[in-house]
């Protein structure tokens, strides 16, 4: 996430060289970026290795800023939807489904969506255990089982 925050403010090597490590680290820290000093040092070091300017660099920088902001907005939207799903599952079926080992709120929501909230969709408890990955099921094809135990020729 720190790299995305960096790209929302500084995209070109010249701008990174101008701001320097310490001011860039402060700028990143003000935006709650973890390891701001390390990210700043890496970015400024990379900027000092690049001195060639290409035509269209300003246009590419503007596009980079827009795309980085869009990715950050999508990340925030995904977190918001995850929270809504978690809240809904906790309201409806949380005590039973989330109490099962290995099933959290998002996997529980998927289970509810696939079964319509009715575990009778699975014909037997063994079938539910198999779908959940709790019971091993052979995946051999054809007439020969345990293909992995045959000697190599």
| Secondary structure: number of strands | 0
Mean pLDDT: 82
| Percent helix | 55-70%
Summed up, the helix count is 7
Overall shape: elongated
Spatial extent as radius of gyration: 26 Å
* Model regions low in confidence, pLDDT < 50 over at least 5 residues: none
Residue fraction in strands: under 5%
Describe the structure.
The chain is mainly α. Helix content is 64%, strand content 0%. It contains 7 helices and no strands. The longest helix has 36 residues. The two termini are 51 Å apart. The mean pLDDT is 82.
List the helices and strands and how they pair.
Elements lengths: L1 H8 L3 H18 L5 H13 L8 H36 L1 H4 L7 H11 L9 H8 L21
Helix pairs in contact: 1-4, 2-3, 4-6
In short:
With 153 residues, the protein is an all-alpha fold. It has helices at 2-9, 13-30, 36-48, 57-92, 94-97, 105-115, 125-132.
Labels describing this entry:
153 residues, mainly alpha, 7 helices, 64% helix, elongated
């Amino acid at each position: 996430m720190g790299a995305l925050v960096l790209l929302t403010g500084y995209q070109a090597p010249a701008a990174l060289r101008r701001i320097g490590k310490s001011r860039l680290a402060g700028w990143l820290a003000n935006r709650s970026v973890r390891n701001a000093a390390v990210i700043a040092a890496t970015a400024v070091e990379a900027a000092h290795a690049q001195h060639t300017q290409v035509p269209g660099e300003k246009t590419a920088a503007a596009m980079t800023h827009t795309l980085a902001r869009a990715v950050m907005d999508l990340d925030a939207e995904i977190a918001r939807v995850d929270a809504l799903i978690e809240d809904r599952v906790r309201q409806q079926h949380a005590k039973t489904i989330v109490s099962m080992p290995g099933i959290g709120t998002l996997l529980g929501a998927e289970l509810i969506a696939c079964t319509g909230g009715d575990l009778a969709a699975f014909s037997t408890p063994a079938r539910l255990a198999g779908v959940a990955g709790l019971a091993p099921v052979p995946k051999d094809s054809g007439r020969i089982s345990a293909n992995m135990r045959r000697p190599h020729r």
